[in-house]
Amino acid sequence: MNDSMSIxxxxxxxxxxxxxxxxxxxxxxxxxxxxxxxxxIALRRAEKAYRDFEDHFWSGVDLxxxxxxxxxxxxxxxxxxxxxxxxxxxxxxMPKTHSTDAVLEGVQRGQRVALSREEDRLQLHLTFLAxxxxxxxxxxxxxxxxxxxxxxxSLSMAQQATLSTVAPWIAEALVATxxxxxxxxxxxxxxxxxxxxAGRLLGKYENFAEEFHAILHRNLQGRSEREAS
Amino acid sequence: MAKRERRVxxxxxxxxxxxxxxxxxxxxxxxxxxxxxDPTSSSVVQATLVRAETATDQPQQTEDxxxxxxxxxxxxxxEPEESAPSESPEELASxxxxxxxxxxxxxxxxxxxxxxxxxxxxxEQRAEAEAELxxxAEAEAERxxxAEAEAERxxxAEAEAERxxxAEAEAERxxxAEAEAERxxxAEAERxxxxxxxxxxxxxxxxxxxxxxxxxxxxxxxARQASEAANGFKNLVRRYxxxxxxxxxxxxxxxxxxxxxxxxxxxxxVSATITQSSGNSTFDHSVINAVEKAAPFRExxxxxxxxxxxxxxxxxxxxxxxxx
Lengths: 229, 324
Description:
Chain A is mostly helical. Chain A contains 7 helices and no strands. The relative contact order of chain A is 0.16.
């Protein structure tokens, strides 16, 4: 009699729609937690990779050597990707044109493309977290409303409306809302946290792109003056 | 960059996410044994019935059992009275002796002799009679004392037997209560086990099984309480009516009205009619009002069919002192 109010029992006794809602919410919760863990690990690694690359870049290594050391286009990530696409554009344009502006513009374009790809990659699946965060309370609420509707329908059949006839129904209906909140709360918290992390990392990439651009600009400026003299 | 950062896979995140959910589920499951301390009674009715039983029957039982327990202590053993013996015969004998020595000489010798003998005899006789009397008195006293002691012993034995009988009855009652408790406990354990079995066996038709079990349990409880329910129901009705009775200020304790109440099996009131009027119309009116106000006696539905039959129609006796 007592354990009829336990949560597993309530879930088992719920009506089909409510059970489906609960299942959906459970799936959403599991998926959002998978994304939370996956993104946390990925972002932490990306940050570490960026720090390593930055150290390497500013250690005074020759840029041509650095470019050669880096792996192929498809596998590079983060700041390496930005550097690589910029430097490749630079190398390709240098023999063709003598206009500094044209070269720098080409480099900038290549870097912009790389940056937008990186942004895409960093924020992968974060929109799913946002969706779960905003939608699952409503889904849970739907399950609750449906369950309470069922409880009132069955109440109209009972001759005697005591609290004990209504209580199990309402409790089982409320489980749906609880599950919705259970899925939504971590999703909200980690969406904010992870998107802030990704944004910070992206800002670092942009800073790096600007610095790299400045280096190339300095180089080109020096060369054109030498040619002029 | 000598070492490449590989793409982050989904294997670990999936495991971790499932782990998080399992932990959450565990927390909800572990929590519920602690929170099951407050038993939810299946219906309000049962609770009131039990209360009626304990409120009415228990004190009566204790009242019944207490007075005999104090009885044997009251009687104290009466003192056996002793009759005191009268004056001693030696005094008289010495008196007569002095008389004899003071008397005359020769011709009075024989006389004296005779007298002396006579006196002696008389004294002896008197002494004898006296001694006899004393002995008789003593024997009487002794008999009395013995009778007294006998009676006392008898009384004590009786009291002892009474006490013993009471103790036995008490033990019997206790044993019965214990047996009852044991039976209850067993029934409880049985019920628990059945519930567990049912739960494990078929979770799909869980609800139907549960309701079956609870139905069965309900019927057992009903059977056990049938007798208590019978007078419990009457007590309940009486209490409800008492609560809703507005005793008119003009009512005195001599007024008395008997109301015939007819009920439906659902406990609805069919009619309440005065079968014996108090003679005071205000009083009669208040009585009818009280019954109507208290009316649907929902507990009727919980009674057994056999018990129900006797409550389809019954009398309530109203008196400002109390309602019988």
